[in-house]
Amino acid sequence: MSAAGESGRAQQMRAKVQDLEQAAERATDPQERQRLKDKARQLKEQSEHIGGTGKQDIDPTL
Hints:
Order of helices and strands: HH
Helix content: over 70%
Number of helices: 2
Largest sheet: none
Mean pLDDT: 82
Shape: elongated
């Protein structure tokens, strides 16, 4: 995939993360809220990996 394609995909994923986080804030069921937060966190990690905006202090043991 091209760098531009990866960047666009990462942006789309970050937008989805925001949607999920907002939905989690509105959720009244604690289990649903946690599910949405977990999904948002996972998607955020994926988008950071794809977009290259991950942590700058990478653990060398990984």
